[in-house]
Amino acid sequence: DVGGGGVLSLAAACLALHEQSVPPLAHLRTPAPAQGVRLAERAGVATPLRRALVSGLARGGAGVALLLRRG
Fold first, then answer.
1. Averaged over 27-50, what is the pLDDT?
2. Which residues are bridge partners to 52 per DSSP?
3. What is the pLDDT of residue 19?
4. C-alpha distances in angstroms, 57 versus 3, 22, 65?
5. Is the dihedral of CA 18, 22, 24, 28 positive or negative?
6. Pairwise CA distance, residues 65 & 54, whole Å
7. What's the CA gap between 64 and 66, in Å, rounded?
8. What is the dihedral of CA 18, 64, 26, 15, to 10 degrees?
9. CA–CA distance, 16 with 48 (Å, rounded to integer)
10. How far apart are CA 30 and CA 20, in angstroms?
11. How much is the pTM?
């Protein structure tokens, strides 16, 4: 999703940093227990954010990751 979908993921991460809110995950009902990872299930969660990581894969196996920092 490095193409058009990647741009939307990047925009969502920028908006999350700006609004200081973690957006909910679509169709997540019962998350598996995870250590140190909090997921927003049905509604966004307001929380202080300093960084966001956006990753994507392109056809052919090329990958990219962007680390965004609020500043």
1. 81
2. 68
3. 95
4. 9, 22, 9
5. positive
6. 6
7. 7
8. 10
9. 10
10. 24
11. 0.77
